[in-house]
Amino acid sequence: MKYYAIILITLLSTSALAKTTGKDITFANHFFTEEVKQCDAMPKNTFNSKFLLEDFQNIIGFDWSAEHTKNGTSLDSGQAMIDPVKKWKVATHNALVNKNEANIQIAIDLTIDLAEANQLYNTINRAELQHKPMCWENSDPNAPCYYHEYQGAVHFFGHYLTNVIKLKSSMTKAEIAIIDKYAEGMWKRFMKPDVWGKSDRGFYQFANGGMTTLTYAAWTGDKKLAAKEINFRFKEISKLFFDDGYINNNSFRGSRAQWYHSLGVQSALGYVYIAKLWGAEVPPKLQKKLTASAELVNLAIVNWDKFKSRKWDAKVRNAPSKDLARKFTHQHAYGIAVMMEKVTGVKFDPTRSDAMHASMRMFHVREGIDEITGFNALCISSVKPIVKVVEVDYSLKQVTGTFKDGVKISD
């Protein structure tokens, strides 16, 4: 009898610790969705706009490393590469929705041009960061941050692959081979050596690189790689998200604690949404932490002082001062209401309860792509979008100005 009890306990323990395997994974046809559909929350711009084409063609071969060395800081990671890529992704979406073969081929041609230019391959990688000063050196927000340069390459690679996955069925074998070569090189230089390294603070865009790993797994059809990544990232999220929902580092970054907390929540929820869509099962303990973190997004809106009252003993060297405050939900997380409800069941209404987020959201939703997760959550929601986006005139220069409290529109 004792023997059977031991077996039963062992089986129960194994079940509780069951991990995702390659057999559990079924990739969505278009990464975050089975079908590319018309979406009112997506801008209507197409490759018929010569200004958009010129804007994108100008970044082919663009030296991101030199640009970031010249203009990047510890506070500003820069948008010189990501903004044009988001426009390319929007125009690709619309080409597929409209079944416009000429524009689909333009999207593919741009994809090939980027691959043949070995775009961003010369960017600093994780190993090379060891020879560079840390971000926020001497607590200076204007200090150089080479990690942002590396991070930019990882995010670009993820954005790139989410788009080419949509185009793959329209590509020739020769075109796919060009992408394969480029993707393998980027994977080996920026992802494979470090993507499962130890992370003891902070959860940021693209799930600390985990989302980019999922895009590579989907592009290559490697289900074992996807499962390995999901198991690692679930463990990392569970480590960095505390039982009460606060996030190691993010939730304690001084006057921007709310801003960085909501960024971390959006990043984690977007990742978990993809993992679940592909067949992964979220551990109950992790689910509770995610739910608690979503509830804190709401708490920070209605009672910022109470949100900030939670103490943490660790030293936070990248906490901005009061004059750099961002006391609102992150503006790039414009799909956070959808992600919170779909993944945790927690409801969030940015239009009534977070005025600054709502104002800035109206601007950033026009970009069509959430740069925290790499996809537009409003396009997977059955809920009618709050904002209907029309065509943006790319012949105009970037809109500039400030909202109340002095927050720049371009931030």
Question: Please, could you describe this protein's structure?
Answer:
By secondary structure, this protein is mainly α. The protein has one domain (2-406): Chondroitin AC/alginate lyase (Glycosyltransferase). 50% of the residues lie in helices and 0% in strands. The protein has 16 helices and no strands. Helix 6 runs parallel beside helix 9 (210-220) and helix 11 packs across helix 14. The longest helix has 22 residues, at 146-167.
Q: Which descriptors apply to this entry?
A:
411 residues; mainly alpha; disordered C terminus; 16 helices; Glycosyltransferase
Report the β-strand fraction as a percent range: under 5%
Number of helices: 16
What is the CATH C-level name?
A: Mainly Alpha
* Mean pLDDT across residues: 84
CATH architecture: Alpha/alpha barrel
CATH fold assignment:
Glycosyltransferase
Write down the domain tally: 1
Instruction: Report the biggest beta sheet as strand number plus sense, adding barrel if it closes.
Output: none
In brief, what are we looking at here?
With 411 residues, the chain is mainly α. It contains 16 helices and no strands.
